[in-house]
C-alpha cells in the first residue's frame, strides 16, 4: 500500500462524547480529498491521558490512535506529527467540525507552493457577551495575521524546519507556531496562507457553560501572554475545563 500523502492530527483528552459529533466531518473532508486527488490520507488521534473511552471511540472510526501522557497541547500535536507518514500535515481539534472542502483546499495550497496555512474558525456561542468576545478576536486575527490551532496545516518539511510546536507553552502555542511558520515561509519564498473563503466550526462549550466574565479573563490580549509556560497558571484550561 502506498504511503499516505496527508496526515490529520487530532489531540484528544476525554473527548469520547465529542468525537462522534465531530470526527465524521474530518473523515468526510479527507474522503473528498482522496476522491479528487487519487491519494490516500490518514487520521491520527493522539489520546492525551484520557480517563474515559476516548481511545476506543476514536478506534471505532477506523483511525489510528496513539498515546501521549504529558498534558501539554504543543507536545501532543508534536507527538502526532512525529508518528505521521504524510508529507502534508493538517492539525485540528476533537471538537471542531470541518467543511467538506477543508482538506482539499489545504492540500491544494501546499501543492501550489505554500509552506502551510490555516482556516479561520467561526464560533457561534449563545450569549451576546461571548459573541462579542469572539468578534473581537476575529478582528484581532484579521489585523495581526495570527491563526488558531483549530485548523492549521503545514508541509511536513516546513513543520520539521521550524521545530514544530513549542512544548514549553501551555497557551498561545498555536499563534507562536504560526508566527514562526510564516517567517520560515518568507525566507523560503513559500507563502503561508489563510483560507478565508472557508470556516471551521469549533464547539462553543466553554463559551456556553462558562460565564462571559470567566471567558474574558482567559481570553484577552493580556492574559493570553501571561505566564504561558506555567502549568499552574493554565491548570483550569487543562484540568477543569468543560467536557
Sheet with the most strands? 7 strands, mixed
Q: Average pLDDT across residues?
A: 88
Task: Tally the beta strands.
Answer: 9
Give the SSE string: EHEHEHEEHEHEHHEEHHH
Structural class: alpha/beta
How far the N terminus sits from the C terminus, by CA atoms, comes to 38 Å
Strand order of the largest sheet: 3-2-1-4-7-6-8
Q: Unreliable segments (pLDDT under 50, ≥5 consecutive)?
A: none
How large is the share of residues in beta strands? 15-25%
Rg, nearest Å: 17 Å
The amount of helix comes to 40-55%
Number of DSSP helical runs: 10
Shape from CA axes? globular
Notable characteristics:
single chain; 243 residues; alpha/beta; seven-stranded mixed beta sheet; two-stranded antiparallel sheet; Glyco_trans_2-like; cell membrane; glycosyltransferase; Nucleotide-diphossugar_trans
